[in-house]
Amino acid sequence: MNHNQQSNEVRHDDENALSDFLASxxxxxxxxxxxxVEHYLAKSGFQCPDxxxxxxxxxxxxxxxxxxxxxxxxxxxxxxxxxVRDKKxxxxxxxxxxxxxxxxxxxxxxxxxxxxxxxxxxxxPSAGLESASREE
Length: 136
Prior knowledge:
- The protein is an all-alpha fold.
- 65% of the residues lie in helices and 0% in strands.
- It is built from five helices and no strands.
- The longest helix has 36 residues, at 51-86.
- The N and C termini lie far apart (87 Å).
């Protein structure tokens, strides 16, 4: 077999795989609803009647959000592991993971999304309670 025939076979296999994937999108129900994806696609000036393309965008968005959540979780675990090491007197390690805005911001930054929050942003439930109790 020469190189040209091999590349044609690979291209044919790729086309078959793409056709199979697009056909599977017809029956797939993504986490992000079609209506929401269509709204944002239309808002950006893109319109396509093919539901498979809408679902392909939904799957890509779902993957993007999932990757960010996984990265934020890794930042959270690293931050909380550092806190536990600093508090060696703590006998029982708290196994709950509490993700905060700092974890999410670091994860988003890795994907080129810069998040800036206002100074009054409360990152934990007790933020602002200490000053309120002093005023009373």
